[in-house]
Design goal:
- Homodimer.
- Its main location: cytoplasm.
- GO terms for molecular function: adenyl-nucleotide exchange factor activity; protein homodimerization activity; protein-folding chaperone binding; unfolded protein binding.
- InterPro entries: GrpE, GrpE_CC, GrpE_head.
- By secondary structure, the protein is an alpha+beta fold.
- The chain folds into two domains: about 90 residues; about 60 residues, Roll (Nucleotide Exchange Factor Grpe, Chain A, domain 2).
- A hairpin with a 2-residue loop joins β4 and β5.
- The longest helix has about 120 residues.
- It starts with a helix and ends with a strand.
């Protein structure tokens, strides 16, 4: 009986010891799991923070890039407008310069035309006397020099006798009709005309005053 009692006591003590060890192991496992969970949380938190910061940085860069693109487009539009305005300014300036030059040439040359006309009338004297011959020849030489100077300045004298009538460069003072005329033709020149020519630019300084022949109506 005593042996049985001792055996039971021993078994009871072993069971208690095993239960105590089991509780201790369970507690240790719980602590270990808690520590692992904390470490996992601590390891995860910086990663999430870094991801958020990276996303914010990317969004900021994207915003700055869009703003830069808009600014570039704005500058391109502004440059295009400025260029167009400058081209228009150059064109207007060139047109104004041509207009001013035309008026300057017309004003300058017009002052010489009447004296030249008078010299031409003297030079056109038919059968001058021996006394007047040297004078008439001298006038003819002066006229040639005048014409040469004017031509060097791109001022051209024109006598359109026999040519088709051009109302842009001629002024008809009189006319006659006849079957011999197929179109309006200059048959006589009362006063020569002058025009200014530079490259392809040409404009009349003074129209030629003429008599024309016209087909019968």
């Amino acid at each position: 009986m005593a042996e049985t009692s001792n055996s039971e006591n021993k078994t009871s003590e072993e069971a208690k010891a095993n239960e105590k060890n089991s509780r201790s192991i369970t507690l240790e496992e719980t602590k270990l799991e808690s520590m692992n969970s904390e470490e996992s949380t601590q390891a995860t938190e910086p990663t999430q923070t870094q991801t958020t910061e990276a996303a914010d940085s990317e969004l900021s860069l994207q915003t700055e890039l869009e703003a830069a693109k808009k600014e570039v487009e704005s500058l391109k539009d502004s440059w295009a407008r400025e260029r167009a305005e400058f081209q228009n300014f150059k064109r207007r300036s060139a047109q104004e310069f041509v207009s001013i030059r035309k008026e300057a040439v017309r004003s300058l040359v017009s002052g010489f035309l009447n004296p030249i006309d008078n010299l031409e009338r003297v030079g056109a004297t038919q059968s001058p006397s021996e006394e007047l011959r040297p004078f008439v020849d001298g006038v003819a030489m002066i006229l040639k020099e005048f014409y040469s100077v004017l031509e060097k300045s791109n001022v051209i004298r024109f006598d359109p006798k026999g040519e088709s009538f051009d109302p842009m460069s001629m002024e008809a003072l009189s006319s006659e009709e006849g079957d011999q005329y197929s179109e309006e033709t200059v048959i006589d020149v009362y006063q020569a005309g002058y025009y200014y020519k530079e490259n392809e630019d040409k404009f009349t300084l003074r129209p030629a005053r003429v008599r024309i022949g016209k087909p019968k109506s």
